[in-house]
Amino acid sequence: MKHLLASWGKVKGGLKGRSVNLFLDYDGTLTRIVRNPAEAKLSPKRQKLLREMTRLPGLKIAVISGRSLRNLRKLVPIPGLIYAGNHGLEFKLGRGTAIYPEVLSWKPLLRKLARKLERPLRPFKGIWVENKGVTLSIHYRCLLSRRIETARKILMAILRSRQDFSKLIVRKGKKVWEIQPPVPWDKGHMVIWLLAQAEELAVTPSFSIYIGDDRTDEDAFKVLKQKGLGIKVTRHPSKASVAAYYLRSPHEVFIFLKRVKDLRERKARNP
Ligand SMILES: [Mg+2]
């Protein structure tokens, strides 16, 4: 992976004369990872930058997160943004919201699983099960690291204990296990779908960028490998990733966003 800001000259060339689709993950990308996910808030200054960007012609911004759509919209309340929550299983585009239809029937089972996990996980101080409607997040950010493996084994045993539970998919994120219905849909599919919508409306050729920090973002990097730019937010650029570029922190992400904004503004002034 190359450092994006160090390669800015080249990247800038690719943006010229094209409209830009910007896909942004939230936690770890727009905000730092914090102990309590409820405290991962965007500063007013960063909100302002995003708000100004959504008003620029030739620039579409979507925030794609593992958080529930409702939670995401509360954290980034910016009109004009496209939102995708639960890794793309639910989204808001324009005035409408939609949900991946097949996941609805799994909601009661996820509720049941959340209840079933309560007692066995109670002795693990620092674990917290979040029911996000169509997925569950089991956060273990605050759990002692030597207890993680035992907790994981308990979780897997419970998932194996019933045939319907065992159909659910477990994905590992940063200090979180994500439990999802077995549907063929992820952040990558969401990006493909949104790009198809954008292409239908586009007047100029577009260039797409996806910025994310976690494993679930790799699906989206794959999609953009041929037709866009994947940017991983990481302190360890030597670790394997499908992304071509990296940024070190949300701070650097906003330096990049500001540059994209300046570029679009100049273009808006001298079209
Ligand atoms: Mg993230």
List keywords for this structure.
2 domains, 13 strands, Alpha-Beta Plaits, binds magnesium ion, alpha/beta, four-stranded antiparallel sheet, Rossmann fold, 271 residues
Q: Can you describe this structure?
A:
The chain has helices at 8-15, 44-54, 69-75, 107-121, 148-160, 163-166, 187-201, 218-227, 250-269; strands at residues 2-3, 19-24, 59-64, 82-85, 90-93, 96-99, 128-131, 136-139, 169-173, 176-180, 206-212, 228-233, 245-247. It has 271 residues and is of the alpha/beta class. The strands form 2 sheets. The protein has a 9-stranded mixed beta sheet, with helices on both faces. The protein has a 4-stranded antiparallel beta sheet with strand order 7-8-10-9, covered by helices on one side. 38% of the residues lie in helices and 22% in strands. It is globular. The protein has 2 domains: 2-100 and 185-269, HAD superfamily/HAD-like (Rossmann fold, 3-Layer(aba) Sandwich); 104-180, Alpha-Beta Plaits (2-Layer Sandwich). The longest helix has 20 residues, at 250-269. The model has no long low-confidence stretch (mean pLDDT 94). Magnesium ion (MG) is lined by residues 25, 27-29, 212-214.
